[in-house]
Amino acid sequence: MEIINAIGRRKAAVARVYLREGTGNITINEKELKTYFPLETLQYIVEQPLNELEATGRYDIKANLDGGGIKGQAEALRLAISRAFVKLDETNKPKLKAAGFMTRDPREVERKKPGRPKARKRFQFSKR
Fold this sequence. Notes:
By secondary structure, the protein is of the alpha+beta class. The protein is 34% helix and 23% strand.
């Protein structure tokens, strides 16, 4: 089997994934999954597509993550893994789509506006 690559994004995070048959190793930026994402909730987010397709332990995943925070990186990785499985076999798409893993979350941080402390917040009003 050849190596299948896919890309996933969330907020400012970008995940590039390389999927191939193997023993279930997930390597992120040359680190083990449990060392890169120490929180179990983030590990669960990354493994969701594998659990949905019952493919845990059958594929090796090598990922390059860049930008954003750890939550955005985990969700970008989930999208990239899902896209790689669809490239592998098109019949995986309905199951992953029903679980909500094929949708790119479009929400981004709104830019700060001039004359305000944040994007929408205003400075405290003083009548006198």
